Amino acid sequence: MNVNVAILDGPLPPAAPWSVEGAGAILCFDGVVRPIEAGRAIEALDYEVYEPMAQRMLAQLAEQTIERFGLLGLDTAHSRGRVPAGECSFRLRIASAHRAAGLEAMAWFIDQLKRDVPIWKRPVYCESGGPSA
Amino acid sequence: MSLRIQLFGPLADAARSREIHVDAPAAGALSAAQVVEQIGQLEPRLRPMLASARLAVNCGFVAPEHAVRESDELALIGMVSGG
Fold first, then answer.
1. What residues have CB less than 8 Å from A81, skipping those under 6 apart?
2. Most exposed of A79, A101, B22, B35 (fewest Cβ within 10 Å)?
3. What percent of chain A has pLDDT above 70?
């Protein structure tokens, strides 16, 4: 089973090629830091992570997602530390035999992560004020 | 015995500290729910946030009635914002 879970410093680098035998669908989600947070322009987000618990929960969540949706592979990474606006701070890739399971799994995994995994973001606001929403 | 509970994110900001200590009469004498209640009594600035907070014991969420031991790694986890 092709499963990878990682927490990395700063912006995530471009995804490396990923192939999974038997997959008819390879889905990739990149979470990108938006330039506006709560109506104010930001330079970046600082991510704080309770590392041992986040690692454990991401690994468990990966296994649960694979089992629940019958996936062929799952690869995910989340940033720690500062990620500038426009850069990727979270990536999820899913391999499934058919697209329906992959699409459902993608949404389910992200919902669970956003509810339970101990990661917090803190905005770094632009000093100049910048454009606002 | 003294229990050390780690704080992160908005909880740490509100408490102005990355940890809080709770006294327990004996090993296993406090449940997770009681630890959270004591945190609220010790640090009033955290009270508005406790309804959505959960105690993590050894890097996993536990039931409110779970008995906490002195050797456990404890963390109070509030609303998270990853992903």
1. A9, A10, A46, A47
2. A101
3. 95
Taking phi over 0 as left and psi of -120 to 50 as alpha, with beta for the rest, A89 belongs to alpha
Cα distance between residue A4 and residue A96, in whole Å: 15
Residue A90 to residue B82, Cβ atoms within 8 A: yes
> Between chains, do B59 and A52 touch, taking CB under 8 Å as contact?
yes
pLDDT digits (tens, 9 = 90+) for A62-88: 999 999 999 999 999 999 999 999 999
Q: Does A20 touch chain B (CB under 8 A)?
A: no
| ipTM confidence score | 0.93
How far from the centroid of its chain's Cα atoms is residue A43's Cα? 20
> Chain B: nearest CA to A113, how far in angstroms?
7
Determine the Cα–Cα distance for residues A35 and A42; give it in Å rounded to an integer. 5
pLDDT, tens only, B25-80? 776 689 999 999 999 999 999 999 999 999 999 999 999 999 999 899 999 999 99
